[in-house]
TrEMBL record, chain A:
Family per similarity comment: Belongs to the CENP-L/IML3 family.
Cellular component terms (Gene Ontology): chromosome, centromeric region; nucleus
Domain of life of the organism encoding this protein: Eukaryota
Keyword Metal-binding: no
Pfam families for this protein: CENP-L (PF13092)
Gene giving rise to this polypeptide: Cenpl
Protein name: Centromere protein L
Compartments, record wording: Chromosome, Centromere; Nucleus
Record key words, sorted: Centromere, Chromosome, Nucleus
UniProtKB/TrEMBL annotation, chain B:
Keywords per UniProt: Centromere, Chromosome, Nucleus
Segments of skewed composition (Polar residues): 40-55
Domain of life assignment: Eukaryota
Region annotation Disordered: where it falls in the sequence: 1-55
Name of protein: CENPI protein
Record organism: Herpetotheres cachinnans
PANTHER family the UniProt entry points to: CENTROMERE PROTEIN I
Compartmental location: Chromosome, Centromere; Nucleus
Family as reported in the entry's similarity comment: Belongs to the CENP-I/CTF3 family.
Length: 289, 751
């Protein structure tokens, strides 16, 4: 479904997002978003001044906005994404324009039918959580959600196998102007000094290689991904006599997006946003089950 | 030589786990109900030691109750003794509620020297709760000013730290004015402020108090503790407090936790460890301070609290919600079993379901409620926590092994309590066993294995048996025995579960998990075959140690009785690799155990045969003739080995002892024909020697052939008297002794 308004999801682009998997939220309701914002902002204030009483609802240093993003989902079965934004009010002037966005977090589910079909009504299935901003805020917001909706968060690491899938999939995508190089970063961690190897390929070359590997357009198999990576490895070996297959793939960046094994993603093309999120949703669901 | 046989037969299937079953009275928190009881509840189970400790605490309390003025600590050995007793008990398991009145009374009355008072106050660590009355009476001591300033200060700090442990606070709230008057004391002022901060409710905020605080602030300057109290007053009554207070203050109160916090946590942990099921965590404040880690990976079981979200949606809604709040019973207030019974219809579940693991009262509730969302919430939480904290799957986790162990222990205890395994736990085991080293958290993991639910899940072989077998064969004898022990428990849990389902099936309940009886029988059979296989291999690898044989035979003690005791139409004989090592064991314990098992097999098979004949209809499950044949072969071998000395000739089992006479002659053993019967069997020969010594004290030639005829019967009686009960029931059931002259024959089950 590509008819989502790209303007409304543009905030996701060109930023680094940390990935988490979240178990289904219990008794979460889209009707109470404003109340959630108020409670969450009181919670943040309380966390910041350890153990002292805080009044709910008054103007606090940090403003919390919780909103629904109906544009960010795959199918009608998916829940609308939930965006949480924290802004800092400057203490000198109370004007609205002085607010500065310090942290955002986005719960979403793009084609997450695997999970959402199975769970009962009381639960809301938003298995993928992306955050941008200081981890201290992630911690506070996360704890509040954990306490309030009885869910658990886990950092969503991306395995080398999944990274190689991303490399293959994204290489094959059409982009108007191919300016960004396809880059793969490998890590050799067993050495006394850790060594990172960066392997950059011209995107057109990479695409040409992938096109020879892929048999049916629109369909990718594990075998094809393996062949693609093996070709890249043997090319590298021919030049540098290094077996990349013995190292660990830690990062993939292409014109579509870049992903790091620690669970960090950066979206670069709005037209492929849904596709990447769908893949990440799938990873998050397998993480939960 | 005394075996456990006696207690064996009448055992009911469901009593197996009574160790971890609950004693309802243990949930009462004491204090307000029955102080005596609560003292006992908080004792650790090693009773002997505790008995004496209990005594010394009682003595100490009665001493302090009667103590006269000014006893010198240095000169009076009784005071020394009792003081140390109080201190050591307090630090080890905390003090019972009734101790506080006595000890606070003596510490604040100024009867004894300050060093004694200080030590007493420092050891006032509660095991459960602190009675409000003891606190109120100590406040009155504070007012008469009998004790020194230092003791007063220490008392206030104690009160602040223990505030949440006081069982009621109504009377304490009534003393607000008294505490407020202490503000004028400059030294006490910071602590009094902190205490008032804890006590203040809206009705306490009065203009005269605000004025007094402002006066103090004018006198002493901007003090953070005064500001804290003022800001609280302002929060309650913004119209009365008009001054502006600085918005950001790092810390309002100095750390007044004093020497107690660590002790409280230690006592809490110890008491929790010692109780059969985790004690209720009655407070949210005293969570053990976990190490600094990433926010979402702390292994903390949440504390029960009601979900208060959606409370203030808008004004109108507010009223509705408040009304509803009156109706439901907040989970924080749930302290006793009787409260649970009274409010069970309006109890709200905690906002984080994981908290039920450490709240036995809620576990009772979980046990009787059928709500999918409860289990789903537990399932997700537990699954994530187990995976995230697993010390051998996640790098950098190994330093937290102790915490993970505790967690697994808690999960296991909960499973015992619910008599049911968690599916998240099962999945965790399947995922992580292939990566397990068999060492890390060993006993916890093996215990969790015992609660894998019974289902006709076909993957159990590749998920459980294969990884377990790999570890089994490559690990120590002790590990092998532990694995066998937990597989025995697993089998028993499955069988118990099956019995429960059978019982409830009359109430039209079908097997949950869609297990059919045949699927269930197959799963059980698969487990028994697996154990038979690993046992055979292990006996060879380890060279038949008695210790290992004991665990293997123990497993078969359950297997041989499945038909009669658990109503499962399945009997599986042990493989030859288990049977023959046991039969030829050098140890009478194993032989006796084997006899008992064969006797129970016989009883079960006979019962099955009779059932089959009497019902005259085709039963869904019939034991195969293979089982009967195998049983008969084993019995013939046993009778030949123990009775007729004919094992080498008569044994018909393909892997049995049948041997050619020519071959036997080559062994150069004289009288090989008689070398196996109850006299000559290596496991029995020791008895035969002792018997000969008693029967013919003068004969030193050890002429075993004397044991025959009437003497043979005496010898049998002698063996039975030595506690070989298994041998007795076997011989009495399986050997036909009517006509002794015509060769004794094996009793045949085949009808």
């Amino acid at each position: 479904k590509e008819n989502a308004d790209p303007q409304r999801t543009a905030f996701l682009l060109r930023k680094q997002w940390a990935l988490y998997s979240v178990t289904p939220l219990y008794r979460f309701s889209n009707a109470h978003l404003r109340a959630y914002a108020r409670l969450l902002s009181a919670f943040i204030a309380a966390e910041k001044q350890k153990g002292l009483a805080v009044e709910v609802g008054v103007e606090l240093d940090i403003k919390v906005a919780v909103s629904s993003l109906p544009d960010l989902r795959g199918s009608e079965q998916d829940q609308a994404a939930i965006l949480v934004q924290l802004s800092l009010r400057s203490s000198t002037s109370k004007k609205k324009s002085e607010e500065k966005l310090v942290w955002s977090g986005c719960f979403c589910c793009v084609f997450g039918d695997d999970l959402s079909e199975k769970i009962p009504q009381d639960f809301t299935c938003l298995p993928l959580f992306l955050t941008n901003g200081a981890e201290s805020y992630t911690s506070i917001v996360g704890s509040w959600f954990q306490k309030t909706f009885d869910c658990s968060f886990r950092r969503l690491a991306i395995s080398p196998l999944n990274l190689s899938w991303m490399a293959a999939m994204w290489t094959g995508c059409k982009v108007d102007k191919l300016t960004t190089a396809t880059e793969l970063v490998f890590s050799v961690s067993c050495l006394p000094q850790p060594l990172d190897i960066s392997y950059a390929i011209h995107p057109e070359d990479a695409k040409a290689l992938w096109d020879t590997v892929q048999k049916t357009p629109g369909e990718i198999t594990q075998e094809e991904v393996d062949v693609f990576m093996d070709c890249l490895y043997s090319h590298f070996h021919r030049h540098f006599k290094i077996h990349l297959s013995a190292t660990k793939l830690v990062k993939v960046s292409t014109a579509i997006a870049s992903a790091h094994c620690d669970g960090i993603i950066k979206f670069l093309q709005s037209q492929y946003l849904t596709g990447v999120l769908m893949l990440l949703t799938e990873l998050a669901i397998s993480h939960i089950q | 030589m005394q075996r456990r046989r006696t207690s064996k037969t009448p055992k009911q299937p469901l009593k197996v786990h009574h160790k971890n079953q609950t004693d309802l009275s243990a949930w009462q928190k004491g204090g307000r109900i029955d102080p005596e009881k609560s003292v006992q509840n908080h004792q650790s189970p090693n009773n002997q030691k505790n008995g004496s400790k209990q005594g010394s605490l009682e003595q100490a309390l009665s001493y302090f109750e009667k103590v006269q003025d000014r006893v010198s600590l240095k000169k009076d050995s009784a005071l020394q003794k009792h003081l140390t007793a109080v201190e050591s008990i307090a630090l080890q398991r905390g003090l019972p509620p009734e101790a506080f009145a006595v000890l606070l009374n003596v510490a604040l009355s100024g009867k004894l020297a300050d060093t004694v008072n200080t030590r007493l106050l420092k050891s006032l660590v509660p095991a459960s709760v602190i009675p409000e009355t003891s606190v109120v009476s100590s406040v009155s001591w504070l007012c008469v000013g009998k004790c020194s300033g230092n003791v007063q200060l220490l008392f206030l700090r104690w009160l602040i730290t223990m505030f949440d442990f006081i069982d009621h606070k109504e009377q304490l709230y009534a003393l607000y004015g008294f505490f407020f008057s202490f503000l004028q004391d400059e030294k006490m002022c910071p602590y009094v402020c902190h205490l008032l901060y804890l006590l203040t409710r809206k009705e306490n905020v009065k203009p005269f108090r605000i004025r007094r605080l402002l006066d103090l602030q004018a006198k002493m300057g901007m003090q953070s503790h005064l500001q804290a109290l003022l800001s609280l007053y302002k929060l309650f009554c913004p119209e009365l407090v008009t001054i502006t207070l600085p918005g950001k203050v790092k810390t309002y109160f100095k750390n007044s936790e004093g020497p107690w916090k660590a002790a409280i946590n230690a006592v809490r942990q110890r008491n929790q460890q010692n109780s059969p099921v985790p004690q209720p965590l009655f407070l949210g404040t005293a969570q053990p301070q976990s190490r600094k880690r990433k926010w979402n990976t702390q292994l903390i079981i949440p504390v029960s609290s009601t979900n208060k979200n959606n409370l203030e949606e808008d004004k109108e809604k507010n009223h509705v919600d408040l009304y509803r709040m009156n109706e439901s019973f907040p989970v924080e207030q749930l302290q006793t079993f009787s409260q649970l019974l009274q409010n069970i219809h309006r109890l709200e579940f905690p906002s984080q379901m994981g908290s039920v693991l450490i709240n036995p009262l809620l576990l009772h509730y979980v046990n009787c409620i059928k709500d999918e969302s409860i289990f789903l919430r537990l399932y997700y939480w537990m699954g994530q926590t187990l995976q995230e904290e697993c010390t051998w799957c996640v790098a950098d986790n190994n330093q937290y092994e102790e915490e993970f162990k505790d967690f697994l222990e808690t999960v296991y205890k909960t499973e015992c309590f619910l008599q049911e395994g968690f599916s998240s736990c099962e999945e965790f085991l399947y995922k992580t066993l292939p990566l397990w080293d068999g060492f890390c958290c060993r006993s916890q993991i093996l215990r969790l294995v015992t609660w894998i639910p019974l289902s006709s899940f076909s993957e159990i072989k590749s998920h459980l048996y294969d990884p377990l077998a790999q570890l089994f064969f490559t690990s120590s004898l002790y590990f092998k025995c532990s694995v066998l022990e937990s597989l025995k428990e697993l089998l028993r849990n499955w069988l118990n579960w099956h019995v429960v389902i059978l019982d409830s099936e009359s109430g039209s309940q079908v097997h949950s998990l869609n297990t059919t009886l045949s699927g269930l029988v197959n799963t059980v059979a698969e487990l028994i075959h697996f154990v038979g296989w690993i046992s055979t291999v292990a006996l060879r690898l380890e060279n038949n140690p008695t210790f290992l044989l004991y665990f293997i035979l123990d497993f078969y003690e359950t297997v041989c009785d499945m038909y009669l005791r658990y109503n499962l139409p399945l009997l599986i004989m042990p493989p030859a690799g288990v049977f023959y090592p046991a039969l030829l064991s050098m140890d009478s314990v194993s032989l006796n155990q084997l006899c008992y098992i064969m006797y129970r097999y016989r009883t079960n098979l006979v019962a099955a045969k009779e059932n089959e004949l009497s019902k005259r209809k085709i039963l869904q499950f019939k034991f195969s003739t293979q089982t009967y044949r195998e049983y008969n072969q084993y019995v013939i071998a046993m009778v030949g080995c123990l009775w007729t000395s004919s094992v080498f000739q008569k044994d018909v089992h393909p892997r049995g002892l049948c041997m050619d006479d020519e071959l036997l002659k080559k062994t150069a053993v004289q009288e090989f024909k008689t070398s196996f019967n109850i006299v000559y069997h290596p496991a029995m020969m020791g008895y035969a020697v002792l018997f000969l010594q008693q029967a013919w004290p003068d004969d030193t030639t050890f002429n075993f052939s004397l044991i025959k005829g009437k003497k043979w019967n005496w010898y049998l009686e002698y063996l039975y008297a030595q506690g070989l009960k298994g041998l007795k029931v076997f011989i009495e059931s399986s050997i036909n002794r009517v006509s002794q002259a015509s060769h004794n024959k094996a009793g045949n089950v085949e009808v």
